[in-house]
Design goal:
heterodimer, A: 400 residues, alpha+beta, 2 domains, 4-stranded antiparallel sheet, B: 211 residues, alpha/beta, Rossmann fold, 5-stranded parallel sheet, 6 helices, 32% helix
């Protein structure tokens, strides 16, 4: 047996032009796949950043008509909530519990920086289950007997105070972090009882446009100052994977339920982006598959051109394995070249894409390329395996 | 592999006209160490017989055996391994690699059990040594036939299958080649199954079997 001669015989018809075409083709295919994966990782991380601001949460309420001005806000019954929960796109539902007692808040001179009472205002609270609150659990606790009550204030509320109210009334402007260190007094009354508590701003929320207190405090206060008035909720907070899903939107429309419009718009934009990315991914997969097929075909053709040699070697007593090996080694070498080629091309194009994004105001977080490289490597492995199988079949066919 | 046993074998293409020869549809045993020549006109399945024993054709009815092993139970890869060590076939179409030299062609055997000196001695006897470094594609058919013979004789075998082995040789060269073949086969204790269009005068001590 002379391995060198066997290799020379079997690989005598490589046709350099076709060979490079197939190598460059599969290199481009792998490169497109790597770009696709990288883009997916990058853009996904951009979208996940927004999710922390409550993208997947929607606050809904029923439409208020003239009729309701007599009967009070329309409420959600238990069957209606069950119905919503049954929707595929809805993961979780929390009920808003409104305060049924009188409440006012005041900030005094010894607490603030000015003389006398800074201001006093009537308030109302709401509460939602703790799992919907985006604040560390430590700062969001209340137990009976505790005089300190944490409160979450909508960020928008502070902005309105600072920009509209304070500047118009010659009041001091208060930045968010300073507000957190202020203490104010809460006066709750009802059911012929009246108590003072110390309010602490535990945080600001973008997600929920209401002044929130912990749910245990709300239950305690409602039962103390307004016993027996338990009522169905008029607002709900939904957690939905995709707030713009047609199923959810149709249901809400049908039941005349209102929702914060911008959340839905954002969801629609995201949906569009996902559809576009999916289409691109499919196109990419198609190109990758084509390039893979080209590579496989080249190797089959290479063996086919040496059909006489394969058959003769087999007749002389070489096993199919003896003959598959030189072809497979050759294919692996070419795959290695294609992989190196695609990695270089990918590095260059990726730098260009990141530049393009940052020019347009998106700072892509740098993730490195572990996923893209891993995918390219796995795809090359898959290609190697497919190559091995197709060469083996081809040699088997030609040998006999 | 002491014997090759054909039991009611007939190639598919001849199934409707097997003739009344001494192999097709007969109970026929070939013994190792003995020499057989199969004679018939064209189209009677001589090459098919060689290829059935060589394991490269399986479109036949009936059963053929190496000792107790049915040939149908031998995979193509196992058959290749058997050929590499036990069966040497010299094909009618010679099956040389035209771009390789005579020396390289002989070197293409999976196993050679004769050294270079022996091969050169053999080439001298067959009057082909001076062509040894020439690509086979540029040789005459007679020269190619002698290269194929040498390639078939320097590898290990228990059975030598010769498909019209001297068809391109003149009378002197054919006689010479026949002597070499018989000598080496006897040395190895191998059986020979040769085919011939009709002439058997060179094949002394061969049992003649008509197809």
């Amino acid at each position: 047996m002379n391995p060198h001669l066997i290799k020379k015989l079997l690989l005598s018809k490589t046709r350099p032009g076709q060979l490079w075409l197939s190598v460059i083709g599969s290199g481009i295919g792998l490169c497109i796949m790597m770009l696709g994966v990288q883009l997916w990782v990058d853009v996904r991380s951009l979208m996940q950043e927004k999710e922390m601001l409550g993208r997947n949460y929607v606050v809904i309420s029923k439409k208020i008509t003239l009729l309701h001005s007599l009967s009070g806000a329309p409420r959600f019954s238990d069957p209606e909530i069950q119905e919503l929960m049954a929707l595929k796109s809805v993961d979780d539902i929390g009920k808003f519990t409104p305060s049924r007692f009188k409440a006012s808040m005041s900030m005094n001179a010894q607490m603030g920086s000015m003389g006398g009472q800074l201001f006093k205002t009537d308030l109302f609270f709401e509460s939602v289950p703790n799992r919907f609150v985006d604040i560390e659990a430590d700062a969001w606790q209340w137990q009976p007997g505790d005089p300190h009550v944490p409160v979450i204030v909508p960020s928008e509320f502070i902005k309105q105070y600072n920009h509209a109210f304070a500047s118009g009334q010659n009041m001091p402007v208060i930045p968010e972090n300073l507000l957190k260190s202020l203490r104010f007094e809460l006066l709750l009354s009802g059911n012929e009882k009246s108590d003072r508590y110390k309010g602490v701003i535990a945080g600001f929320s973008n997600r929920i446009q209401a002044i929130l207190v912990p749910e245990p405090f709300m239950q305690y206060a409602n039962s103390r100052y307004a016993p027996g008035g338990e009522a169905a909720p008029s607002r709900l907070i939904l957690h939905a994977e995709n707030p713009a899903s047609p199923e959810l939107l149709n249901h809400l429309k049908e039941k005349q339920i209102e929702t914060a419009e911008d959340k839905v718009k954002e969801g629609k934009t995201r949906l569009l982006l996902e559809v576009v990315m999916l289409l691109l991914a499919l196109l990419g997969a198609f190109i990758v598959a084509l390039s893979m097929m080209g590579f496989l075909q080249y190797n089959q053709l290479l063996a086919y051109r040496s059909a006489y040699e394969i058959q003769t070697l087999h007749r002389l007593g070489y096993t199919q394995g003896n003959m598959v090996l030189p072809y497979f080694r050759f294919a692996l070498r070419n795959l290695g070249i294609a992989l190196a080629l695609s990695t270089g091309l990918f590095a260059a194009l990726e730098a260009g894409i990141v530049g393009l994004f940052s020019q347009n105001g998106f700072n892509l977080p740098l993730h490195g390329w572990p996923w893209s490289l891993l995918c390219a490597f796995l795809a090359a492995m898959l290609m190697g395996w497919l190559c091995y199988r197709s060469i083996k079949n081809q040699v088997g066919r030609l040998a006999n | 592999m002491q014997l090759i046993h054909f039991f009611n074998v007939v190639p598919e293409p001849l199934a409707d006209s097997p003739g009344s020869g001494r192999i097709w549809l007969q109970n026929r045993v070939f013994f190792k160490g003995k020499h057989y020549v199969v004679t018939a006109g064209s189209g009677r399945g001589k090459t098919t017989l060689i290829n059935i024993i060589g394991g490269t054709r399986s479109d036949y009815r009936g059963d053929a055996f190496f000792d107790e092993t049915n040939l149908r139970n031998i995979t193509p890869n196992d058959f290749a391994a058997i050929r590499a060590t036990s069966i040497s076939v010299i094909h009618q179409d010679l099956r040389l690699f035209p771009e390789l030299t005579a020396r390289q062609n002989i070197d293409m055997n999976p196993l050679n059990d004769r050294d270079a000196a022996y091969i050169e001695k053999l080439a001298t006897r067959l009057d082909i040594l001076q062509q040894f470094n020439k690509p086979c594609g540029r040789m005459s058919l007679g020269q190619q036939q002698r290269v194929a013979l040498i390639r078939g004789l320097v590898r290990p075998f228990e059975w030598l299958l010769l498909d019209e082995p001297f068809s391109h040789l003149d009378a002197i060269n054919a006689k010479n080649a026949m002597e070499v073949v018989a000598e080496i086969a006897n040395d190895r204790g191998a059986g020979i199954i040769a085919t011939s269009l009709g002439s058997t005068e060179l094949l002394k001590d061969f049992e003649i079997l008509e197809l």
